[in-house]
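Minutes, methods subgroup
Present: GH (chair), OT, SY

1. OT presented the first of two proteins processed in the latest run. Sequence and C-alpha cells recorded below as shown on screen.
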Amino acid sequence: MRPTTAGLIAMVAGSTLWAQPPPSPTLLVLNKDDATLSIIDPTSGNTVGTVKTGDGPHELAVSADGKTAFASNYWGGAPGTSLSVIDLAARRERRVELAPFKAPHGLFVSEGKVYFTAEANSAIGSYDPVSGKVERVVTTGRGGAHMVLASADGTILFASNVSDDSVTIAERGVDKAARWRTTTVRTGRGPEGFDLSPDGRELWAAHSGDGGISIIDTAARKRTAKFDIGTKRSNRLKFTPDGRHILVSDLDAGDLVVIDAHTHAVTKRLPLGAEPEGVLIVPDRSRAYVAVSGEDHLAVVDLASFEVTGTVATGRGPDGMAWIK
C-alpha cells in the first residue's frame, strides 16, 4: 500500500525530528527501570528524545566533545557485561561487550578513555572509543569496586570498594605505558558515593552502611578525618563547585543532606521523596538536580537557598545524569 500524502509528511517530519541535534544545554538522565536514556531540554523541562540502553543502566558519562554518551549496564536480573555507546545527534545506541568484566557501574571519561568499575571482578577497566579496545587497568583486590573518578590530569584513579570498606587509589607513572600502582585506604562501612574537592586535595567518601564520611588526603594517600552525618543510607556525594558545601543523597531517609565543608556540620536536611540517588550540579553553579528514583522525577535544588524549586519528569527509576553545554 502506498503511503498517503499525510503519511509521507509525518514520516519526513519524524525523520527530521530524529536527526535533530540535542538542545543546548542538554540534560541527560538514565532510567534504570525502563532501560532508557532521556534527552531533556532543561529550559522547558521537556523530554525531547529517548534512547534504549542495556538492562539496568546506572551511571552515565559524556565524551569531551559532548557528542557521545556512555551508560553502564549494571544489572538486569543478572550482572550486566556491556556499555551502551550513544550517538546523541542520531539518538542511536550501539552495545560494547565487556566480558569477562561483569556488573559495570561507575564511569568516568578522561583523556578520551572511558574508565569503568567492574563490581563483580573488583577491577577498574577502560574502553577506548577510537580503537574499540577494552582492557583491565587495575585489580583493586577488594570487594565491590563501585564508583570511579580520575584526577584532573588523568594520572590518578579513585574507586570506592563498597563491600570492603575502602577506597583504592591507582597512580600511573609519567610513562603512560607504565603499570598503575595502587594504595588502599580504609573508610567506614560501605563507601559508595564520593567526590574530589575542587582543588583535588581531598576525596570525601560517604558511607552507605554507618552514616559517616571519610576524608582522604589525596597526596598523602591516607584518611585524615571521619565523622558522622546521621544518614540512613548515603548514596551519592558531590562538592559544590566553590568547594564550600557537600551534597549527600540519603536513599532510605529520602533527604538531601547539605554539609559545610569547613566545619563538617550538617546545615540542612532537605526532604525530597522516595529514594533520592544521583546528584548533578550544573556548571553555572545555580542549581543541582537530584534523581528521586522512587518517584520518577528529578528534584531541582537552588544552590543559593538549598530549597527545591521544581521537578522534572523522567522515565522510571532515574539515577545517573550528565550535562552538556
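2. SY then presented the second protein from the same run.
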Amino acid sequence: MESTVNNPSTRAKVITRRTYNRSLNDEGTVFETWHETIDRVIEHQKWLWERAIDRELTDDESIELFELKQLLLSRKVAVAGRTLWLGGTEISRRRESSMFNCSFTYAETVND
C-alpha cells in the first residue's frame, strides 16, 4: 500500500488548495504550492518567535524551525488550520487575534 503521507489523495489536494493555499494573483487562478504554504507558515512562526524574545533566532532555534518545516512538508505534523490559512499574511500581523480561538478571551498580543 502506497503511503498517503508523501502522496496525498486527490481529495486531500483539493481541500488543501481550497482551504490553505493562498492565491498568488488577483484573478485567483494561481495558488501556492504546499511547499510555498509551509514556507509562509515557517516565516510566520519565525516572526512570532523573534518578536516574543525580542531578538533574532539562534542557530539552534533556527534548526528547530527547519525541523518543523520538514515535518510539515512531509505531513507528519500540522499546525492549526488558521495558521495554514492566515500565517504570514498582513492581517495576521495587524490583527493577531485572527490567529487565536478566543471566543471568550481578549487577546491583543502573541503573549496573550
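Chair's summary of item 2: Helices lie at 10-19, 34-53, 59-73, 81-86, 90-94.
Next meeting: continue with the remaining queue.
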